[in-house]
Structures are given as C-alpha cells and as structure tokens.
Protein 1
Amino acid sequence: MIAKLAAVGEHSAPVAPSPHMTGPHDSVDARLAQVLREFGNRLGALLQGYRLDRHGIDPADIEQEVRIRLWRAIERDRSGAFHASYVQKVVATTVIDALRRAEVRAAEPLPEDDDEPGQLPEEGAGPEQLASDGERMGGLQRCLGEIPERRRLPITLHLQGFSLQEIADVVGTSAEAARKLVSRGLDELKSRLRELGYGEFDD
Amino acid sequence: MTDRSLSSLYRRLAAQSRDGLGDLLDADTLVAAAAGSLRGDRRDEVAMRLARSEVQTDLVRLLRELAPAAQALAGEVSGRNVAAHAREGRGLRHAIRPRRHNGLRWAGLAACLAVTLGAIGLHQQRERAREAEIATKLEAAARPDRIFTSVDRIFSARIDAAQAVGDGLFRSDFNGS
C-alpha cells in the first residue's frame, strides 16, 4: 500500500490509505497508478519543455502536486465519469497557484547576510543598448496600436509564440484565415516600423 | 548586437508592461482556450490577455499538448468507476435476494394469480348480465309502428268517406255558398 502511494507521488505523498485500494481490485488500482504516473511524467516533460521554471516555479513540485490532487479527486468521487477537462483544470489550477506563491516569494525581501560576498551585476546590455531597446519597444507599441484590433490580436499572439492553429482556436477562425491575418499583419507592422526609421526586423 | 527579432522585442515589451500576475486568467478559461472552446463573446478579451502574458501563453500551449494524456487518464478512471459500479450493483442484488423463503414466494405468486383470474371471471360475468338486460329492454321496446296501422287517422276509413264527398269549388252547381 505504502509503496503504491509512493509511486503515485514519488516523494512522500500525504494521501491517506483508502479501504477501496485493498482486496481483489488491487490490479485495477495498480493500472490506474501506472497511468497516473505516465501522466505525471508527460506533464513534467512539458513543464520543463516550456521552461516554466523561468517564472519562479519548480516543475517537479507542480508534477507532484498535480498527481496528489488528481489521486484525491479520483478517490473522492468514484461514482461518475471523469472528464479530461477536469484533469486539465487541475493542472491549470496547480500552476496558477504555484505562480501566485512564487510572486509572493519574490515580493518578500531577502534576508541580509554580511558574510556572503555581494553579487556582481549580471553581464548584459549596456546603457546604450538598453536605451536603443527602449526606443524600439516604444516604436513597436506605437505601430501595433495603429493596426486595427482584428489584425492586431493574431499578430501579437503569433509574436508571443502561438502556432497558427492555436491562434485560430483562440480567435475563433480557420487556420488558413489566421495565417493570412498574421502574414498581412506582420507585413504591415514591419512596413510601419521601417517608415518610422527603426529599420528591418525578422519575425 | 541589436536584436532584430520582432518576437523577442514584443515579449520583452509585454513583460515590461505586465503588472505582476494580477491579470491571470482563471483555470476554466485557460482550459477552454487550450481546447479552442472559448465563448464567442470572450474570445477577443482572452486573446488580448494571452498576447500580453508569456506565462499564460506557455500554460495554454502546455495544456493543449497535454490533452491526449489527460484524455487517456480520464478514460482509465471512468472505466474503473464503471467497473466498480457494476461490481457494487451485483453485490447489492446478491445481498437483497431472499434465498430461504422460496416456498412463500411461490405461494404469494399463486395467490396473486388466483386473485387476478377471479377478478377477470367476475368481470366477464357482469358483462354477460348487462348484455342480457339490454336485450330484454330492446325486446320490450319493439312495438308496431302507429303510422302504418289500421288505427292510423290518416288512412282510416272515416277520412276516406269525408273526402269522397268531393270539393264543392269544382262542382258545376257551385254558387258560392
């Protein structure tokens, strides 16, 4: 029993043992634990692939938390259908909770430690570079603001990293229509930036 | 070196203008955005907020890629729940089955059958009695028509005799009286 719970949340999962998990249905539960483990592994890989740790959250913690929440939900309601959208919602809620916790942590002041050597500022863009970036960002913001919203939304989603099919699903159009909107919109955006003297840009 | 990538520039711009995580969408909306099932009236608003937030963009894309695995897990859990239900249902039927009172059950069934047959017989008997009563009434009501009888006034001998006198108007000796 303990081994099975440990398998569900590989770290020490605070899940109470259930009477349903004993007896002749152990094989069914073992199969479910296996599927849950596979789901967790897939989630972990995606969390790492999208580098969500950039936002101050630990993918391993998220993965474990999702497994525990799902296992609790499965044990709580054994009567009806279990929907994929519910599984997705558990993942989304767990990530959002972790992001909020990370934000609170970031807002708290770090403890002062005189023994530690002071951190040197990271090597990065110099003042000139920063000024140039700021200027170009201002130009980009201005040019985007001049483009009608119907075309601006697909462009900004594209620049944020959405694929054409994803843009189509979010905006509510076909992938082909999304492709045209993005293509024409980017051309228009680059043209405006060029006219304002910001030069040529890649996608 | 100047970064000439629009995507990179836009993401930095979005990150700069973002005011913390206050603009986070709720989990249901993010799941709907990933599944492409957003309500029509929310599409523009959600698209705008996603376009401003790199982390939410990542989360929506992650959920989209996770969908097949979520479907597989949900299918497995639903299958297990259905199987558990069937087992519990069978157990319940076994539990309530009266094994030691088979004789009593057959006697009860026979009594029910007898009562039913008796009720049908009684009903049929009543029907027959009612039909006989109706037949008797009909027989009593079947008397000869008065119109075509010899006592009918129209065709009686006295009227014929009166008409045989003839109309005065067409007689040659009619004088108006």
Protein 2
Amino acid sequence: MWLAALFTVVFLMTPLVVTVAVSLGSSSVFTLPPPDWSLRWYERLADTRGLVPSLVTSLQVAAFSTAVALALGTLCAIALVRGRFPGRDGIATFLVSPLMLPGLVVGIAMLQGFKAIGLREAYLSLLVAHVVITLPYVVRTVLGALSLFDFSLIDAARTLGCSYPAALVRVLVPALGPAFLTSGMFAFLASMDNYPISIFFTDAWTKTLPIQMLQYVEENPDPTIAAISAGLVLLAILVLIVGDRLVGLRRLADF
Amino acid sequence: MSARLAPSPAASPWRDPVALLAAPAVLYLLALYALPLLWLLAKSFVGPAGPTLGPYVDFFSDPFNWRVVGNTLSVAAWVTVVCLAVGYPASFALARAGAALQIAMLVAIILPLSIGVVVKAFAWQIVLRRDGVVSQLLMAIGVWDEPQRLLFTETGLVLGAANVFLPFMILPIYSVVKLIDPRLDEAGATLGATPVYRFLRVTLPLTLPGVVSGVAFVFSMSVSMYVIPSLLIGDRFQTLSTLTGRSFLFMRNEQLGSTTAVVLLALAVSVVVGSGWIARRLGSST
C-alpha cells in the first residue's frame, strides 16, 4: 500500500518535473539531466509566432464559458434540488453527459450542427461550444453542494428580517461558495485544456493554446514548448495554492 | 411559509414554477449538443437512396477496421488494468496516510489534473525516448541491457495514458474508502477471519461502487482519447478516435468519419449505461 503511494506520487509528478527540467536546460535535444542550465527557451517565448494570441483566446473563451456555465448550471441545480417535477434524475444525467462522451464525436456533431444553423464564425463557435464543456462540471459540483444545503436556513433568515433576495445573497451564496470555486476552477481548466472539441472550431486566425501547442510539437519540437508548459505548470500550482487557501485541498479532491 | 417549502403533492408536477429555472441550461444543451448528436446518428443511417446500413456493413467487413476496434479496446483495457492495480492500493494509502504523506499525495493527484493533456503527452514523449528517464531507469536496475525506445510503442502509449487517467481511478475509490470504518477490519480479525477472507468479504464489497465508477471513468476516457495516441504512438497504430479525427481533419472522408464516430459513441454510451446498471445493482443489493 505504501509502495503504491510512493509510486503514485513519483509517477504522477514525472511529466511535470521533466517538463520543467527540460525547459531550464540549455540543450535543444531534451537530454536529461540537462548539461547546463539556461533561460534561453523562455527568452524565445515572446518571439514565438501565434503563442500570445492563442493564449489570449484560450483565457477569454475559458473565462466567458465558465461564467455562463456557472449562471446556467446553478439555476438548473436549484431547479433539480428544489423542484417537484418528473425526470429530474434523467435531466441531471443529461447535463453531465458531455463529460462522458468522446469529445471528438461531440465536436464533429456540433460542427455540423453549427453549420446547419449558419454559425460559421470561429471565435463565437468556440465560445458557444465551450459552454457545453464547462456546464457539466458546474452542474455536478453545485448539485452535490445544494443537496446538502438546508433550505430552511433561508426561511430562518427571512424570519429574522431579511428580504428574500438578501436571504439568498447572505445565506445561500456563502454556503455554495466552495462549490462555485471548485467547479469554476475545474470548468476553467477543462476549457483551457480542451483539444478534441476546439479543433473543429479553429481557423488560421483563431486558435486556442492546446491547438497551437500541439501544432508546435508536431512541426518543430524544441524546449520552447517545454517553457510554455512550465509556465502552465506554474499557473496550475498558483491556482492550487489559492484553491487550498480558500476551500482546502481535501475538498478539491471530493469527487 | 411552510406551504411554500413543501409544495402540496396535489399540485400538477408540470406546473411547478421552480422547474423553469432548469430550462435555460436544458434548452441550451438540447439545441447545441443533443440535437447535433442525434442528427449525426440519424445521418449515418441515411444513404443517397434512403435508409441504409451500408456504411456499417462496409465498415465491419473490412478487417482493418476490426483491428482498429481491437486496438481501441485492448489499449483501453490495459490502461484500466494498470490504473486499477496502482490506484486501488494508492487510494487506501491516501485515506489512511498521515498528514504529510496525504498532502503530498493530494498535490500529486490534483496538480496534474490541472495541467493540460498536451503538456503531459509532450512530457511523455521525452520520458519514453531511447535516452529517456524510463530507459535509463530500467537499465540502471538491470531489466534492460541496452537503451530502448518506448515512444511509438503500445507499452509507451499505455504508460502515458495510465499516467494521465490515474487520478480518475484514485479519486472515486478514495471517496468510498475514506467512509469505511477501519475497525470493521479489526472486528473481522477478532472473529478469526483470515486477511484474504476479510478483504474478499468485507473490504472489497464496500469499495466496489468506487471501483466501478473509477473503471468506468478510465475505460471510457481511454476509449475516447485522441491527443495522447496522436503524440505517443502516431499514425501507425489507429484507434477509433484517431481514425475519426483523421477522416474529418486530414482525409476529408466524412462518410468514414461519421461511421467511426457513431461506433465510438455507441461504445462510450454502453460503458456509461453498463456501469450505471452495475452501480444500481450494487446499491440495491447492500
């Protein structure tokens, strides 16, 4: 059991450590351990064509789709927990189902669907498609948190003199805060990371970061990609520290 | 006020105004996700001259495609086995570990989850090279006599994919294991049960729901993975997913692409439905 624990830690951390080590090495052929340390691959980042625009696109799409998903997903979760109508289990399964189906197939279907309704603009298609990617994360987590929430607390707040909206803001929103944060974080990261759906909605001018990166890897793999990756690793560490401070590491692992 | 809290059961279920809150999300997914999928499904059964099974007959009469289906299933099965073999004991360790090890494990599990699959697959390209870490390690402990390349082999693909999907095996099992009272095992021991018997009759049945959900996650994700095989094994070894992607993106063969997409979809849906069915049976029997 402890051997498996040790192996798990080493095994899971290997790709991250390797990426950072390669990005800091001076050699261009990925030798490990690197013969000498240098920051030259980081200096080349600024000159790498298409990198900054794709990063900006990815961040915008992820932020927008996560915000929309949080709004739609939370409303829907409230309806599913509080409502008394048939088929609620089915609706919950339906809303989480994009997580379980092959992204590539969903992407192809959406590409053809968007074409049929005349949506051809790449950026807008990306935004619309990514809401489908982020929504399941929000529904799943907020639904779990809401089913543990005691709604009589809202009535208690109203008895104590709060108006109904004030009771929602001061009781329900703080109680759901950790769920918003966790689901928002994973939804954001899922959108940033998505390849199989995004690939159908990119053109020469609009590319997301994973698409641009995979293109570099296939065209000319050099440690510049490792430098981008190391930047993303750093970003993930920061997100994790913030997440830990706000909701705690153990809650992030709730599945 | 209590009337508002618990709507009277006599009220028509369709008139519940709370249900309207679900409408935006449900309509969004219906229009932009479910309908396109159904449309893809429907179109794959319609030829130029009406309804047809032709594309599927063609697909399944080509031995190459059978090999593609076989590749997909065997790689997914191996990835699942590796993840289960490592993840099952690891989730017990995670649940029973002291504070320091638990934090180390949580970081090691959650951090990679927040990093893109392109980054990880790229890192495995480096790790699996002839002069990579795995090759050096296996030489150092004397398993291999000379450096070997694992990149572009099935072993390399399984290793890389297992690395990416391992957290999805550990977390569901962990969520079940942490609820088990360790004293149950002691109680079994006091009553004279052997360790093997205790594991088979007490621990294993209690963890089975987590195992089913972890296996379903990892298997369905391995069946559908696209980026990992593209980077770790290349065109020589096709899976349903890479074949679908190639047909649409490079070969512009929509006919073949739609057929493989539907076969892949059917496979993924049957994993989801099958695991849900098993989970319900487990739930009702305990």
